[in-house]
Each structure stands twice: as structure tokens, then as C-alpha cells.
Amino acid sequence: MSESTATAVYFFIASLYLTVACWKGFALLRAPSPSFALQTAVHAVGGIVYVVASPLGYRSLGSAVGQPWLPTLPIYLGILACFGMNHLLTILWTPSRQGVSWRARRLTTAWSLAYGFSLTAMIIAFVGADLEGPAVPLEFNTDQVDDLHVLVFLTVFLTMLTCGTLSTWRRSRRAQIDDEAIMHAVRWFGAGMLVTFGYVVCSAPAIVAAATGHHQLDALGVMGSGFGVAGSVMTVYGVSGAAVSKWLAERRDIAVLQPLWQLVVARVDERLSLDSTLGQRDSNYETGSTDAMQPMPHRLLGVRWTLTRQVIEILDGFRELERGAWARSSPANSVKALYEEAMKTDELRRKLGLGKKGLPEAELDALATAAVIRDAVERLQTARKSGNGVAVSTPSAGPRSVPDVPGKKTPAANERPRLVRVARALDHPMVDASLRVVRSLPQTDEPLTTGAS
């Protein structure tokens, strides 16, 4: 790898570290805790280390201080500090089953002292070294190992790195944590530490060979830095991966729910949306127009807020259709009857896009709910155009029979996945076919709740 390529790679990794450091730093300000403090420190130090360790940063700092090899000291101290803090985080996140508090505190204290003594010994050894010749980034281990102080420096560094990485890996393998995000981080910490140990495996033979005057393994020592880079990226993903995955899933669900939102909010009553203004609400609501209301959710910032608002507004739209008596049972009944018929006839089953094993109950319920919603909105829009239904809520006189339907008693925590299934079912061939059947039947005004809870 050329120095320019190595610099670009190191700067990219540094940007990852510093981005996560800012993210965790804001979290630390909101909710101070040892975990957030360690995560912020790890990524801040890691970002600086990768800037300095890049060939450009290494040479620039060496020239600025007049000591070509001096950048090696902060780099190695930073590397050991970063992996040491990741080790301590793993201990905090994976306490023993018994004696949780005191055992975790004792281990944290013992390892902190070990890392502290090691860093101090490395500084003393490095200061006492007599470093000669021009500095070549990534080749310090084999270029200067003939100096006894450098050999001590590297021995302490590799010994503690070995102990820390393997201990973290071993501990993460046995971890059983209920919190999914922390378990994700611990698994990746363990895997990243094991990969980082590859740096020791490559460096130790090269250092021993160089110390005895044989430099045939120098390239192997340089190759070891690749394991360090890979391990660092894996630990960064361990901290950020679960949150990023959740963020991506929320962005995806916002896009999936948008057609359902347009159907039950924009086409039913745009006053249900927080985005609507007073003037737009009055004019568009009276005319039934939705042209002025085509929101494009911000799916980069405030993602969770946008998604939560979408779910709430969709449920409000369901309730408006229920309260206005626009929903009826025939679409849901038609879906289920058509499904039963399709599972008996291969030709119809294939035409409706169904597999031989059929659909899970939740998916079938989503199809039924989607058919009810589409039918209810069509009835509302038809009434508005004919001048018979300007207002959404036109409840019929007297008591109404409200049958129990799919989704009626869905817990609030499960509404999001249910609505995502309903949104995906809106254009399903079975919903289209069921609505064609319903439209061919004599019109009735039987009411039905649409599953809002």
C-alpha cells in the first residue's frame, strides 16, 4: 500500500472515530455515565491516533518537533489506551452472575492499574531510547528494535495488547445480555479484539527476527497494521452499528408508511397532520383536495420523531373513518373468503401471488385491514364528490354493532410493525380482487372498526 493510500485510509477511519466521539459526547452531556464517558474518550483518542499514525501525520508531526521518531510514542500510547478502555467497557457491560457490583469494580480497578503501569513503563522506555536514522512510518518495530529500550517498549506494548484483546474476546464469548444494543456492541468488541490480536501475531515474529539481525520478516510486521485497522473498524461498528441499523430501519419504515399516511390522513382529514396550516386546513378540507398536502418527511434528522408522528396520525385517521361509519365488514370478509378459495385452487392462488404454504395470520390480517381502509376512503371520497359527505364524521343514529376485527387490541408497542404490514398490503393483488368483489355487491352501510387502538 502506498503512503498516499495509507493516509487516505487512516484519515477515513479517523473521521469515523471522531464522528462517533461527537455523537457519544452529546449523549454524555444529556445523561452522564461512566459508559458514555469511556466511549467518548475511546473514540476521541482513536481519531487523533489515526490522524497522527497516517504517513502524512507522522512525518508532519516529526518535522514539527524536530524528532522524526517521536510520533511513535503518542500513537502506541493511544492504541493501548483505546483498546484498554474498550476492555473496561466490556467488563462494565458483562458483569458476573453473582457479586455483580464488587466483582466488576475489582476487575475494572485491577485492569486500570495494569494499563496505567504499562503506559508509564512505555513512556520511560521510549524516553531512554537512542533513536537514529530517518523515520519510516509503520516500520518502527523492525527499524529500531536493536535498541534495548525500544525492545522493552515493544514488549510491554505487545504483552498488554495481547492480554487485553484476548481477555475481551473471551469475556464477550460468554456474555449473555438482555439489552440488544449492548449485546451487539460486546459481540463486535470481542470479534474486533480477536482480529486485532492478528497485529501481535504478525509483529512479534518480525520484531524477534529483526532484533537478531534478520529482516526477512519486516514485511510481515508492516502487514500486521492491517489487522489493527480492521479491528478498529469492527469496534467502532460495535458501538454504532446497532444504532445505525435501527436508524436505517426507521427511515425505511417512514418510506413504507407514507402511502398509508397519504390514504388515511391526507385523503381523510388533513387537520390530523401537524404539518397542516390553518388556511390550508380550512380550504382543502372543505373541498376535499389534497394537492396542497404532499409532505416529504425529513428522513435524515428527527427520524424517530417523524416515524412516531406518522404512526399516531395514521391511527387517528383510522379512528376518523370508524367514527364516521365509512368502514364496513364486507371488504375484510371478502379477503378471507377469497383467500380460502385461492388456497384450494392453484390457478387462483398463483394469480393472487400466494405461495403454496399460504400467508401467516398477521399478513392475512394486514390484507383484510388494508381492504377495509381502501374501501372506507373510497366511500368517503365518493360521498364528498356527490355533496353528501363534506364532514368526515357522519355517525348513524342509534347503536352500532362493531365486530372484533384484526388489530383491534394491538398493544401500542406493536402498532408500528402492524401498520408497516398494512402499508405493504395496500396494493396486493388480493386486496384489489376483494374490492372488485365488494363493489359488485349491493351497497350497505354496515359499520366496522378498522383496528385502531
UniProtKB/TrEMBL annotation:
Protein name, UniProt field: DUF6545 domain-containing protein
Domain DUF6545: 246-427
Pfam family, one: DUF6545
Cited InterPro entries: DUF6545
Lineage: Bacteria, Bacillati, Actinomycetota, Actinomycetes, Kitasatosporales
Keywords, comma-separated and alphabetical: Membrane, Transmembrane, Transmembrane helix
Spans traversing the lipid bilayer: 6-29, 36-53, 73-95, 107-128, 148-167, 188-210, 222-244
Chain segments carrying region Disordered: 383-418
UniProt key word Membrane: yes
The keyword ATP-binding appears for this protein: no
